[in-house]
Amino acid sequence: MAFFRSLSRLSPLSRSNPRKHFSPIFPLSAAFVSDAGAAEAVGSGVAAAGLSGLGPTRSTEKPRVLVLGTGWAGCRLMKEIDTRLYDVVCVSPRNHMVFTPLLASTCVGTLEFRSVAEPIGRIQPAISTAPGSYFFLAKCTGVDPEAHTVECETVTDGVKDSLEPWKFKVSYDKLVVASGAEASTFGIHGVKDHAIFLREVHHAQEIRRKLLLNLMLSDVPGISEEEKKRLLHCVVVGGGPTGVEFSGELSDFIIRDVHERYSHVKDYIRVTLIEASEILSSFDVRLRQYAISQLTKSGVRLVNGIVKDVQSEKLILNNGEEVPYGLLVWSTGVGPSPLVLSLPFSKSPGGRIGVDEWLRVPSSPDVFAIGDCSGFIESTGKPTLPALAQVAERQGKYLAKLLNRIGKAGGGHANSTANVELGDPFVYKHLGSMATVGRYKALVDLRQSKEAKGLSLAGFVSWFIWRSAYLTRVISWRNRFYVAINWLTTFVFGRDISRI
Predict the structure, then answer these.
(1) Disulfide engineering: 69 pairs with which of 46, 178, 198, 346, CB 3.0-4.6 Å?
(2) In sequence order, what are the residues at sequence separation of 6 or more whose Cβ sits closer than 8 angstroms to the Cβ of residue 232?
(3) CA-atom Rg of the chain in angstroms
(4) Which own/partner contact pairs does 122-129 have at CB distance under 8 Å and 24+ positions apart?
(5) pLDDT at 51
């Protein structure tokens, strides 16, 4: 008990508002240690496991929705959920949402990084202000659906002199797994060690820094011709929308900025896009042909092949060809993360968490899964939905409405939804796909499926639609302003090539 009292003295702010100032940084929050009786009542389930954290909610308190992840699905759910009905707790290794369709633009300086990132506190203000809602910078390490608890561990990103990772538990009434997926490497040797993925802001930052570093190193006296060609060879693996958009942005950067500001090396820099089958395979055939034509015109070399091995300065294709590179960006789709594979839930085809038509995990009525980490179980007869932002966003919006309906019917607390009418199941309707292929050129495919007929556009009009659509879809008015100003300054002054 003396140990508990000493911990409560660490944070005087905690005593003034104990529930709001809980933080996993401290071994135990004052909410659980300032009063021994209250600590025993509220946190008994957690304490029994030897970890501190948030204990079960009382029947007189608002039920707690625990959201794992801050991607499109989780953030849309948190934005739409009624905080008068629920306390919201979010656990994620990042404290922001990334507007991924514009992430490629940040790699070459068309947009600044903060323009595509929105803090969670702006998406759901209750996390910053409500006494029972929190955001924890941590990763989930396990789920116990029987005890309604989630095991977590803080993340520090390797920051020097930071605290050691602290483990804690959070009890939930409703759990929403929206932890996303991870980039697929197909078990190819060397990919994780030498390639850069393009899924997070820090990936874009790494790409930008390495690209500019290679440009500057290639201009140093004494660099051989062969090494200069290698340093300035940018290889993109994966011909999906992300790979094509990054290749287009990179080629435009080379034409508009590198040729002007790095004239000594302008003839050495080149881009190669490697795809095993067809680029933009989900798009209309005419649009694919247009994309190939535009990328080729802008200097992108298209290679049809399969990567067999990745080394520090070259990759090897299945035909034995060796491709030296200075920058390697890997964009070949996604697959289930180790966390998703380890969770004690049934899986859908492909290894995702299996859900029914209402996005519930059948074996655990209070657990839901949305976004790239989830897929329909076989008994539903529905195919696994593609790992797209619009799928995740639509699922988040649907589940928020479902949880609001459950909360209003009195089923918000754990094990209390048996007699609640759930309403219509989730139905996904594809709205179309868009991708840019360089300056003033883009593709817009409004078909609902590959087999369906619909409007397909390419060229300047499509580029205008692409920019207009994404500007209106950017997360907040703050970010819309940032994006619009970035586009304007890039148009007038060119891209910022400072290596910061």
Answers:
(1) 178
(2) 214, 215, 218, 265, 268, 269, 270, 326
(3) 25
(4) 122/476, 122/478, 123/75, 123/78, 123/79, 123/97, 123/475, 123/476, 124/75, 124/78, 124/79, 124/81, 124/83, 124/88, 124/90, 126/83, 126/87, 126/88, 127/78, 127/88, 127/90
(5) 63
Average pLDDT over residues 43-67: 75
CA 227, 232, 233 angle in degrees (round to 5)?
Answer: 100
The first and second tokens of residue 183, run together, are 């980039």
The tokens for 37 are 């009786």
User: pLDDT (tens digit, 9 = 90+) per residue, 166-188?
Assistant: 999 999 999 999 999 999 999 99
Measured between alpha carbons, how far is 302 from 281 in angstroms, rounded to an integer?
Answer: 15
- Cα–Cα distance, 119 to 113 (Å, whole number): 13
Q: Environment class of residue 164 by beta-carbon count within 10 Å: exposed (0-12), middle (13-18) or buried (19+)?
A: exposed
d(Cα 426, Cα 403) in Å, to the nearest integer? 13
pLDDT value for 341: 94
Contact 470, 444 (CB under 8 A): no
Containing H/E element for 214? Answer: helix 201-217
Report whether pLDDT(38) > 90. Answer: no
Closest CA to 394 of 429, 368, 352: 429
**pLDDT > 60? residue 19:** no
Determine the pLDDT at residue 2. Answer: 39
Q: What are the residues whose beta carbons fall under 8 Å from the beta carbon of 98, sequence distance 6 or more?
A: 71, 116, 117, 199, 200, 201
Q: How does DSSP assign 52-116, residue by residue?
A: -EE-PPPTTSPPEEEEE--SHHHHHHHHHS-TTT-EEEEEESSSEEE-GGGHHHHHTTSS-GGGG
Burial of residue 488 (CB within 10 Å: 0-12, 13-18, 19+) is: exposed
C-alpha torsion angle, residues 9, 13, 15, 19 (rounded to 10):
-120
Task: Round to whole Å and give the CA distance between 191 and 187.
Answer: 8
Distances in Å between the alpha carbon of 404 and those of 120, 397, 408, 420?
Answer: 20, 11, 6, 12
Largest pairwise CA distance in the chain:
76
Could you say which DSSP state residue 160 is in?
T
Q: How confident is the model at residue 260 (pLDDT cuts 50, 70, 90)?
A: confident
Q: Which residues pair with 307 in a beta bridge?
A: 317
Please name every residue paired with 138 in a beta bridge, in sequence order, or none if there are none: 154
Kindly tell me if the per-residue pLDDT of 319 is higher than 50: yes
Average pLDDT, the chain: 87
Sheet holding 441-445, edge to edge: 433-438, 441-445, 456-459
User: Residue 263's pLDDT is what?
Assistant: 83
Rounded to an integer, the average pLDDT of 421-449 is 90
Please state the length of the chain.
500
**Which is nearest to 307 in space by CA: 485, 488, 184?**
184
pTM for the full predicted model: 0.87
Distance (Å, rounded) from C-alpha 33 to C-alpha 24?
14
At residue 232, φ and ψ (nearest 5 deg) are -100, 15
